[in-house]
Structure formats: structure tokens, C-alpha cells
Design goal:
By secondary structure, the chain is mainly beta. Helix content is 7%, strand content 40%. Strand 6 and strand 7 form a beta hairpin.
């Protein structure tokens, strides 16, 4: 876009095609592909986008336009549910790109204009919003929406030549702030990723959390490809701007190769890179009595990490009593992710398919340097809230005027892409400590950690793996391991009791070994005494 055209669309917001012509842009500048209308072609490349993001960071922040607020404020969740983009009018509905694109309408929860462009060679043209491309009731408040106001976001439908009906199935969506998500290999949406996190759950005022926006997108076909699409995004927020490139592959798992150039306007107390956002309410670990009829409710049940030193770590998630940040220092991690390991339907029992929610793994494609994987857990009393964030946080303080370049791959899959050969933790269970038939001591908590894997299958008869357990405070007792009596070879559990006083959290660590040989990944847990 040139600057004049950019100002008209972003600062004036609600402009019709006739207004654009009146402002001096010739009608011939708007190309049609079916029902879609396009703005004039402007030069575009990722290098141009990088320079634009860099320039933005040197200027005062201008919030995104919120066009027609008197209309979007009336487009509630219920009203938006009645508005559907016409799939016959989708971008690339007839090719050449295999994945048609449909668009989200502005509304109460998504009031900021998002500009969406199509790349053709060295140029790009904006797709102009027209309400005629949406099905909506005759009495919908959106009937008064003027043309040219932009969209809330977009999604890629399944392939036109695939087995699924592309008009009814999509596989990736960008909607709201810098959020995006994919269905992964199990065909079910769940957790989300974000472009960036700024001061999330920061305990040090005045550092308020910011939600930078992907304010503009460019969609580019991948020549001669049947399984890839390319997306570019311009990010902007009060303290940061950025240029992002996404090469997305629709395979068994969904892969996203991301190239990000991030520029800071201001000092940032907690800068979260490659962030993942999920929901955890309760699982078999700990559940208040009769809080819900279902056995488990969560999009993810743990944080997995593969450290730069090669250690595989599993940290089950918590519904914490207060917002908690856990930091796991590392140098050049090999990867981390929020996973849904429990894939048994009977452990959930409802119809929203928590057993099929994707796991999401971050694989660095260039070294991350020194820093920490940080896990933020926020209390919740319902499944409607995303209350878990995992992200990479650089070690050094972040000052205004800095640049960060990141290359990483997101794996939206059923499991982590590089699983360890060691036994993995498959369940964490808590109960009252002590022995059956005896008075249970107050404050004594029993922990049962289940491990499953080939490394535990061929132990000699009568030989038990040794649990190696450390805790940050408290006294351990009644420590032992045993095979789980379910007939599954290689399924063992470690048990121990912990006596602790006071409400402060207890950091815990456990793995199994035999002699000098490590048999399992490392289980970490943060116990909050009841």
C-alpha cells in the first residue's frame, strides 16, 4: 500500500468503494475475482515488510482503527454466529491455490480492522470488505456496515481436492490480537499460538500486559504446491512491532515455519517469544469434589521440554490458587511444547473432543541463546478461559530499540515430534498420605507418578527401578516403585508421601533409574499444599 491509501483505510476506516473512487482512485484500480473486490496493486516483499516494521518501532504507536463501533458493539456472540462468509465467494475457491480462504466478520469481541492482501508476484492488493459476501439475517446490525471496513481475521479451508468438504472444514485460523491456531493431525481445534507476549502476568507495576495485533496480512500462493501456503503478517503494539513470515504445510501434522523480525519501542519487563496459550481446569491429578461431572477438562495436560543439555522433562499443569510463573533456565533449548498426552475418551466423556485437542511443539530452527522457558498458570473455575501460557523469555533485559530475529517451526500434532526413548510420565495422582486402615496424618500427601515405555519392559524378574526424588522442602517417606497391575508391560509407578507445613509451593522432581542408567524422563511438579 502507498501511504495515502493506507491512511484512508486505517484512519478513516469505514469507506465504501464509491468513496475511494471519489478520493481519486480510479475504478479500474479495483480488480474482481468472482465476488471479491481488490484494491490497487502495491509493491510487496518480505524485505519491504521488515523495513516497514522497523520504521513503525521508531514512531509513536497508533492503535488500530475500530470502524463503525456503533455497529460492531451490537454484533454480539449470538449475532456474529448468524453471519457466515459465503464459501462460493472464497479467495481461491476455483484455484489456483489448493486451500480456499474465508473471512471473519468484525463484531463485539473483534472490533479492530485487519487488512488482508493477496500477493501476486512482486505486488499485493488488498481484499476490500463487502457485506454482500456474507450471509446474514435481514435484521442483522451488520446490514448497516459500510463497505471497505476490513475484516476481523481469516481462515484456510481444507483442500479443494481433498477427502473433506472444504466448504465445511478449515485447518488454520488467524483471529484476534496476534492469535492463531490449527486443528493439527486429529482434526480438532484446541490451544492457540501467538505472535508475541508482552508483560504477561508481570507482578511489577506499572508493567501492564499488552496484546499486540497482527494488523495486516498478505496471503501468497506457493507455486506448484499441493500442501503449502504462505502468510506474512505485520505486528504492532504499544511497545513492539514485527514482521512475520509463515510457511504452513498441511500434512499429517500441521507444520508452520516462522521467520520473525521483532523491534521494541520501549523497555519490556517480560518479553515472551514463540508463545503458546492453552486451557487447563482439572485432571486426574487433583479435582475438587463434585466441581464438574466430567473426570477431566483441559486442552493441554502438561509442558514438555527438551533442554539444550538433552534432558527430557515433563511438567504436569496445575489449576493454581494464584497466578504463578515457573521459570526453567536453559541455553539453546532443542524444543518445548504444551501437550495433550491423555488420548482416552473415557477420561473426558463429553462431546467437545478434549481427547483430540492438538499438542503444540516449538522447534528452534536457529539457536535461541540463553534464557528460560516460562510457564504461566492462572486460576480458573471454568473451561472458557485460556489460563496457561508457555513461552521463551530471553535472559538479558529487553530495552527499547532492540531487534530480535527468530526462526522456529511449530508442530501441531498428536504428540511431540521428537519423543524420547525413555519411559514417559503418563499420569500424576495425589491423595491422602499414610497407610490404609490407619489414621491419616494431617498435611501428609501421597504422590503416585506413572511411567510407561520400552525402557521399563525388560527388567529382570524381581528387579525394580529406583525412584530419584528431590523436593524443595518437606520430608519424604514411604518411597517405592511397583508395576501397575494392568497387564501392560513397561507400565510402572513411583509412590511417596510428603509431609509439609505452610502454604508455600513445593518444587518436586523425580525420575527412574537402574544403577547408573536413566530409565525415564524427568517429572517436575509444583505442589500447592491444600
Amino acid at each position: 500500500m502507498n501511504d495515502a491509501f493506507d491512511r484512508r483505510l486505517f484512519l478513516q476506516g469505514a469507506v465504501s468503494l464509491s468513496t475511494l473512487v471519489a478520493l481519486g482512485l480510479p475504478a479500474a484500480a479495483f480488480a474482481d475475482e468472482g465476488a471479491l473486490t481488490f484494491g490497487p496493486a502495491e509493491p510487496f516483499s518480505f524485505d519491504i515488510l521488515i523495513e516497514r516494521a522497523k520504521k513503525l518501532a521508531s514512531e509513536a504507536y497508533v492503535p488500530p482503527e475500530r470502524p463503525a463501533p456503533e455497529i460492531t458493539s451490537r454484533l454480539t456472540y449470538e449475532e456474529l454466529g448468524k453471519i457466515k462468509f459465503k464459501t462460493d465467494d472464497a479467495l481461491w475457491a476455483n484455484g489456483p491455490e489448493p486451500f480456499p480462504v474465508t473471512f471473519f466478520h468484525l463484531g463485539t469481541f473483534f472490533q479492530k480492522k485487519v487488512a488482508i492482501n493477496v500477493v501476486d508476484g512482486k505486488n499485493a492488493s488488498e481484499i476490500i470488505y463487502r457485506k454482500s459476501t456474507f450471509d446474514m439475517p435481514a435484521d442483522s446490525p451488520a446490514q448497516a456496515m459500510p463497505d471497505g471496513v476490513g475484516f476481523a481475521g481469516f481462515r484456510f479451508q481444507e483442500s479443494r481436492t481433498g477427502k473433506l468438504d472444504w466448504k465445511k472444514n478449515d485447518w488454520v485460523a488467524f483471529l484476534g490480537a496476534s492469535y492463531f491456531r490449527s486443528i493439527g493431525e486429529l482434526f480438532q481445534y484446541g490451544l492457540s499460538a501467538r505472535g508475541i507476549v508482552v508483560n504477561a502476568a508481570d507482578p511489577n507495576p506499572p508493567h501492564q500486559e499488552e496484546f499486540p495485533d497482527f494488523k495486516e496480512f498478505w496471503l501468497e500462493p506457493v507455486p506448484n504446491s499441493t500442501d503449502q501456503v504462505k502468510v506474512y503478517a505485520l505486528l504492532d503494539g504499544p511497545s513492539v512491532s514485527g514482521a512475520f513470515s509463515f510457511l504452513m504445510t498441511r500434512d499429517k501434522a500441521v507444520l508452520m515455519d516462522i521467520d520473525a523480525h521483532i523491534y521494541t519501542r520501549n523497555d519490556i519487563n517480560r518479553l515472551g517469544l514463540t508463545p503458546l496459550t492453552s486451557m487447563y481446569w482439572f485432571s486426574e491429578t487433583a479435582k475438587p469434589t463434585a466441581i464438574d461431572w466430567r473426570p477431566e477438562v483441559h486442552d493441554s495436560d502438561g509442558l514438555a521440554m527438551w533442554t539444550g543439555g538433552g534432558e527430557h522433562i515433563w511438567r504436569p499443569l496445575n489449576d493454581v490458587p494464584a497466578t504463578t510463573t515457573s521459570s526453567f533456565a536453559d541455553s539453546n533449548p532443542r524444543g518445548f511444547g504444551l501437550l495433550q498426552r491423555d488420548r482416552i475418551f473415557d477420561h473426558y466423556l463429553d462431546g467437545v473432543m478434549y481427547d483430540r485437542r492438538p499438542s503444540l511443539w516449538v522447534e528452534p530452527l536457529a539457536p535461541f541463546g540463553d534464557g528460560a522457558v516460562q510457564l504461566i498458570e492462572i486460576p480458573t473455575n471454568d473451561e472458557i478461559h485460556d489460563n496457561v501460557v508457555a513461552m521463551w523469555v530471553p535472559k538479558d533485559p529487553v530495552k527499547g530499540g532492540q531487534e530480535f530475529q527468530l526462526k522456529y517451526r511449530l508442530h501441531w500434532a498428536a504428540d511431540e515430534p521428537f519423543p524420547t526413548n525413555l519411559a514417559r510420565c503418563v499420569a500424576t495422582r495425589l491423595g491422602n498420605g499414610g497407610h490404609p486402615g490407619t489414621q491419616r496424618p494431617i498435611g501428609l500427601r501421597k504422590f503416585v507418578i506413572e511411567f510407561l515405555g520400552d525402557s521399563l519392559k525388560d527388567l529382570p524378574f524381581g528387579v525394580k527401578p529406583e525412584p530419584v526424588i528431590t523436593v524443595s522442602r518437606g520430608e519424604l517417606s514411604y518411597i517405592f516403585t511397583e508395576a501397575v497391575p494392568d497387564g501392560v508391560n513397561g507400565h510402572w509407578r513411583a509412590q511417596f508421601d510428603l509431609q509439609v507445613t505452610g502454604p508455600e509451593p513445593v518444587e518436586m522432581r523425580c525420575f527412574l533409574k537402574l544403577g547408573d542408567k536413566v530409565l525415564s524422563e524427568t517429572w517436575l511438579y509444583q505442589y500447592h499444599p491444600f
